[in-house]
Amino acid sequence: MNSKSYNKAYVLFSGGLDSYICAHMMKRYGFDVELITFKSIFFLRNLETGKSVIDVGEYKLNRIVIDVTDEYFDVLENPKYGYGKNINPCIDCKIFFLKKAKKLMEDNDVNVIATGEVLGQRPKSQRSGPLKNIKTDSGLEKHLVRPLCISSLTKSFLEDIGIIHRERFEEMMQVHGRSRKNQMEYANKYKITGFSSPSGGCLLTHKEYCRKLRPILNCGIRDKMILSLLKIGRHFLLSDDPYKTVISGRNEKENDIIENFKDKQIILRMNMDDIPGPLTLVYGERLDENDLEKACLIHTYYSDFKNNNSRAKLIDISSGKEYNILYNEDDAVSLIESMRSKH
Questions:
Q1: Less Cβ around it within 10 Å: N or C end of the chain?
Q2: How many domains, the chain?
Q3: How far apart are CA 7 and CA 81, in angstroms?
Q4: Stated pTM of the model
Q5: What is the enclosing helix (H) or strand (E) of 127?
Q6: For 222-270, how does the pLDDT look when each residue is reduced to its tens digit (9 = 90+)?
Q7: Rounded distance between C-alpha atoms, residue 155 and residue 146, angstroms
Q8: Is residue 148 one of the residues assigned to a domain?
């Protein structure tokens, strides 16, 4: 390489196969590689913020994990390039990540950033037009390299100045489109393991999660607690102005998660001997008696209480307050269906 200032490269590292291979190819090329992983409440991978070491084939590479949840709301609420099938602003998301990496690059005298993007792999963000927009809008025209598909792209600034020679990447491996055959062969050859499945690590691509998320975004809510709870339970919208919701656990693991919030929120459980049931969290400002009565009705429906048109006893484990409701199954079913339709 021609200049000491180009010896180091940052690689955007999601933990997927393409990012592993990108990091490996950049290291083979001769760069001092450091991995950058962005974490958010919207991503499935549960990572600790800070530095760690990742095995990428025979290489041990340093990784820094940065939490971008707070800043990511601005991207999510008003994406310049719109959404995918759900609430996934894929193009704007990539631009946002690269801008964050660019700031880190400038602060640390690094001049190369690499990504594992593959032309034609994704229908919205990895076509030639969007790939060009991503490079331009991120301000990385002179710094970005995409080694996995470099042979399908126009010549870059890093090639013009002799830092990158595409034939060296072409000799390693090239990919175009959705097939993962070449990547798997490369991973097997260099014993690259530990990568996540290609099913998608972003909750914003999941239809059911987005169904729950949409009314929250519409209300302008950025509460990390309620956003984290979208991943679990049955959700019922009491009101969207102000936002009020009921979340009922579906199993012991989800009940344990809900119980962690017992000092902050109303959490209902059955208060009758030998009547098991879920834990149910009731969230919102200015909750009134009508809201709580509805929450109790929902909770009782999902418990083992079977005495229709009888009194059911519940308790809020946070405050110790007891509730006594007349339970009617038809009323519960009607309420649940009407509240689900609000999402």
A1: N
A2: 2
A3: 34
A4: 0.87
A5: none
A6: 888 888 899 899 999 998 877 899 999 999 999 999 999 887 899 999 9
A7: 11
A8: yes
